[in-house]
Design a protein that fits this description.
With 270 residues, the chain is an alpha+beta fold. Helices cover 37% and strands 13% of the residues. It is globular and about 60 Å long.
Length: 270
């Protein structure tokens, strides 16, 4: 709670240093969530249950009954570097540390089980194995909290940006929408299509801008769109496709998008 109060998005990790399912239905990933958590698992509950996307600073979520089981089983605390506006250069062995000392500017450092974390201000795309024993953890990734470290934090150096850019981005394959739009109930009360277009554009931006709690952001955004437009008949497959595309571009699976949409319609009684 103290870390979250300091704006560090946190999540519980198990003895294997992997994220735990954060509600009873997701214990031991019974819901089908993927243990490496690069992409949040296909979970039907509305809570943010998996990996970096679950990291939060919300005290109500952290202290909730849904997360209680996971926190009792946790053996470590993880955090989302990107959500804290930092980048972690994870050095896994002595050779990697030697390389960092000769190549990277001094910054905040934390001792790990096998090496060191060098922490910089700013975010980049997360990439593993940019060189032997070196991983970059920032956006859409998680790291283990091992203390505040020592030294003054520097900005992400050019060499880290270059290492990340040299690795091709692994983007999820975007797939077509396969769930129906709720049936309309007559004339659209919004009258102007500009209102709807602005609402969809804002929803896309909300999803795109999320750096933590992506799982929950997608669900909340779907819920808001359906609440405003789901009963009046103005939503189309094209609008829904735009929202799904934005969510998939943030790493969400099609199955999760479908589940989130279905949960939102059920919540609203559609």
């Amino acid at each position: 709670m103290a870390l979250a109060d300091g704006r560090l998005p946190v999540l519980p990790l198990g003895a294997d240093k992997r994220p735990l399912g954060n509600c009873p239905d997701c214990t031991d990933l019974a819901c089908g969530g993927r243990p490496n958590m690069k992409v949040p698992g296909p979970c039907v509950c509305p809570w943010p249950c998996h990996g970096w996307a679950a990291a939060t600073t919300n005290p109500s979520v952290l202290a909730s009954r849904q997360w209680g089981l996971a926190w009792r089983r946790a053996r470590a605390i993880g955090y989302h570097p990107g959500g804290a506006n930092v980048t972690v250069v994870d050095l896994d062995n002595a050779d990697a540390i030697t390389w960092a000392r000769a190549t990277l500017p001094a910054t905040t450092t934390v001792t790990t089980t096998r090496g060191e974390h060098w922490i910089y201000s700013g975010t980049v795309r997360s990439v593993n194995k940019v060189r032997e024993g070196v991983d970059i953890k920032s956006l859409m990734s998680y790291a283990r909290w091992l203390g505040p470290g020592t030294g003054t934090m520097a900005d992400v150096p050019t060499v880290v940006h270059r290492l990340v850019e040299e690795k091709p981005a692994a983007r999820p394959a975007l797939r077509a929408v396969t769930v129906p739009v709720p049936a309309g109930g007559g004339r659209c009360p919004h009258r102007s299509p500009v209102y709807l277009e602005r609402g969809i554009a804002m929803a896309e931006q909300r999803i795109t801008a999320a750096t933590s709690g992506v799982h929950a952001t997608v669900y909340a955004t779907f819920l808001a769109v359906l609440s405003a437009h789901g009963r009046c008949g103005c939503l189309t497959e094209a609008h829904m496709g735009r929202l799904f595309t934005a969510a998939q571009a943030k790493g969400e699976s099609v199955r999760h998008c479908t589940d989130a949409w279905s949960n939102a319609t059920k919540t609203l009684g559609m």
